[in-house]
Amino acid sequence: MDSVRIAILDMYNNAPNEGLRCIRQLLGRGAAENDVSFHVDTFNVRAENALPDLDYDIYISTGGPGSPLASGEAWEPRYFAFIDSLLAHNRGHEHKKHLLLICHSFQLVSRHLGIGEVSRRKSTSFGVLPVHLTPAGQADPLLHALPDPFYIVDSRDYQLTLLDPARLAALGAEVLCLEKERPHVLLERAVMAIRFTPEVFGTQFHPEADGDGMLRYMRTDERKQQVVTTYGEAKYDEMVELLADPSTIERTESVIVPTFLRRAVARLGQLAAA
User: Fold this and answer.
1) Of 272, 270, 256, nearest to 100 (Cα)?
2) 43, 65, 83, 171: which has the highest count of C-beta atoms within 10 A?
3) What sign results for the dihedral spanned by CA atoms 27, 31, 36, 37?
4) C-alpha radius of gyration, the chain, whole number
5) CB 188 within 8 A of CB 163
6) Angle between helix 211-218 and helix 249-273 axes, rounded to 10 deg
7) How far is residue 115's CA from residue 195's CA, in Å, rounded to a whole number?
């Protein structure tokens, strides 16, 4: 297998972000680590109503700003039609398409598939925070190498809760991790990752976030002032300390997306050799 075709579904709507840089950085590393060429195309879904076809091998649908609830915008039905076509393709073909859903995309697809309730949080969840693995998460090939809990970069105003067990069972989906435990808060814990199918994996958080890059970004005067003004100096100091710890975000970054790419490339290689 000489080349793997990868489509990035850019959901940032032209907003400034670190996610695309981190994804492209991981793809560069992944090509080298797997000794394969990655042909990568990016589709600006929300700003340009651009979507890929099913000629790619791997798809990464990014995070993004704003509400994941129904928008009425032209891109939304086309995006969901793409998701449905990919899932239908995988049900009927041996050559599966691999899909990673990140944050905003995770919320959109969870809502579209009717897995649970996607709703606005009472307050923003922001910081470097622990998430806890479920038994399914402890056994999942993308997560089993991580400790319980492991740390993630979280920045969200929405959440997935109130799951529909019958719908999960019908899809064969499994909940892999939940947000940090809050015994003093009488609210259901949000879902932080789901294995939708063997080839489709989604996270509420940003598995592409890199500790070094995020630390440099947080230390810029503009970003520091934003965080201190909104969340206070103690929250800012805590984030900087955790980002500098290689056992937190750097570890998460080194496991989830690289393992997703490695497993997808290995499966594609097996099919090419068959």
Assistant:
1) 256
2) 83
3) positive
4) 18
5) no
6) 140
7) 12
Token reading at 253 = 């970054």
Domain boundaries, the chain: 3-209+253-273
Q: Which two tokens stand for residue 161?
A: 């809760």
DSSP state of 44: E
Please tell me the distance from the alpha carbon of residue 201 to that of residue 174, in angstroms, as a whole number.
10
φ, ψ at 65 (rounded to 5°): -85, 165
3-state secondary structure of 203: strand
Tokens read off for 8: 């990035």
What CATH number does domain 3-209+253-273 carry, 3.40.50.880, 3.60.21.10, 3.40.50.620, 3.40.50.300?
3.40.50.880
Q: Write out the two tokens for 177.
A: 């991790």
User: Judging by beta carbons within 10 Å of its beta carbon (0-12, 13-18, 19+), is residue 148 exposed, middle or buried?
Assistant: middle
* Per-residue pLDDT in tens (0 to 9) along the chain, 274 residues: 679 999 999 999 999 998 999 999 999 999 999 999 999 999 999 999 999 999 999 999 999 999 999 889 999 999 999 999 999 999 999 999 999 999 999 999 999 999 999 999 988 888 899 999 999 999 999 999 999 999 998 888 999 999 999 999 999 999 999 997 765 554 678 999 999 999 999 999 999 999 888 888 889 998 899 889 988 999 899 989 999 999 999 999 999 999 999 999 999 988 877 6
The token duo for 1 is 């297998």
Q: Considering Cα of 202, then 151, then 104, then 48, what sign does the dihedral take?
A: negative
Strand boundaries in 204-260, DSSP class E:
none
Place of tokens 């400034």: 16
Are 77 and 25 in contact, with CB atoms under 8 Å apart? no
